[in-house]
Amino acid sequence: MPRSVNSVASRARRKKLMKLTKGQFGRRKNVWTVAKNSLEKGLQYAYRDRRAKKRTFRALWIQRINAAARLHGMSYSEFMGKLHKKDIQMSRKVLADLAMNHPDAFKAIVDAVKK
Q: What CATH number did the domain enclosing 66 receive?
């Protein structure tokens, strides 16, 4: 009996992978072995960077809050310490947005914390 390799399924698998590498440069988009390696590495980077993105944004928010707090004569750590002591529960994301886009609202929070 002849060997059955199911070329329909094999072709479909390759086609699916080649579709995912469509926008890449050079042989990464049209040579099977290169495209396969490129896709695997790309997926690894995507997995890693979904987690790194959270760290990066938290650092950005802290910098923005620190800059805004210093305009009102406080350091970031001092501001956050007093915020927790007053039991004002606001995320760093919201505080950073207020600091950037609504400085009056941020000033009101700083004043509430200073009392």
A: 1.10.1900.20
CA 8 from chain center: how many Å? 39
Q: Is residue 1 part of a domain?
A: no
Residue 18, both tokens: 């080649």
What is the Cα 19 distance to its own chain's centre?
25
The residue count for the chain: 115
| Total number of domains in the chain | 1
The pLDDT tens digits of the residues spanning 85-97 come to 999 999 999 999 9
pTM listed for this prediction? 0.78
Sign of CA dihedral 96, 61, 47, 38: positive
